[in-house]
Amino acid sequence: MWDTRAFHLAVCEWPQMVPPAQLDLPPHRGQVVRHELLGQGCDSHDLSVQLTGISHPLCAAGAAPYTVFRAVPKGQAPAHGWPVLYLLDGNAAFDFLTADLLAHVPDLMIVGVGQQCEGQFDRDARARDLTFGAAGQHGLAADAGYGDRLTGGGAQFSALLTGALRRVAEEGVQVDPARRTLWGHSLGGLFVVNQLLRHPESFAQFAAISPSLWWHPERLAPFLAPPQTWAKNCTGRRAYLASGTREKRTGSPGPQPDAAPAAFDQLIATLAAPGTLNVTHQIYDGAVHIATLPSSLPWVLGFAADCLPTL
Questions:
Q1: What SS3 state is found at 78?
Q2: Does the pLDDT of residue 308 top 60, yes or no?
Q3: N or C: which end of the chain has fewer CB within 10 A?
């Protein structure tokens, strides 16, 4: 059930520690998508999948173009248009969405940006799309700390996300441009943080779940250090950040943690410090990294739709 009280009141009531989603989780690398929602349909939204033909400008020859998943509210759009939530890793996100979740946000449009692949994650594509290059880097570069995958195409993907892909996603739908929300998990969460710092005007709200702050933190640091030029453009904007208490990078040494990463706590403090960005954060108690993806969906749907999930 959902409480549709005004968001500026409801968000203050969000508990900072919440339980994770209770469901069977895929392995670390994801699994073959089932997309049961797309097969079964739902009463609240019209569902569609579009093979866009749009590719990353730096992609390898033969790389799959992007796929756009859409859940458009049924009925007449309000005068200002529908609010819209953009989900990165759209193949996985739409695998975890259910008709029941959508039924609680009948006035929210949801867009998933993914790839033409059978799995929940295209690891090569997300390494390319969701990471930003080093200062002075031109083109993609193999990253030895990330399986020698080609990385650093975030700037070009950002331009597609707010340009060609946005046009495809919103074609034929009346959308409220003042109520666009961007969500991402893991590397997607890191991309959302970068998008907020580099282009705060591109979305009204930003939701970063378990952002991969371990990935070249020196590339993010200049944007977080004073003077924080992004802060002046964040007035009236909102950010939602979440992490699990058992986050641990696969293969890393040491015991299983029992609290959110210190870098996550520091990021929250840094983003909130200027006072221009409305920052909300939650901890999913007992959640490992992959569990934070589905755990975040009820909350981010409410965040984007301006209502409060009561779980």
A1: coil
A2: no
A3: N
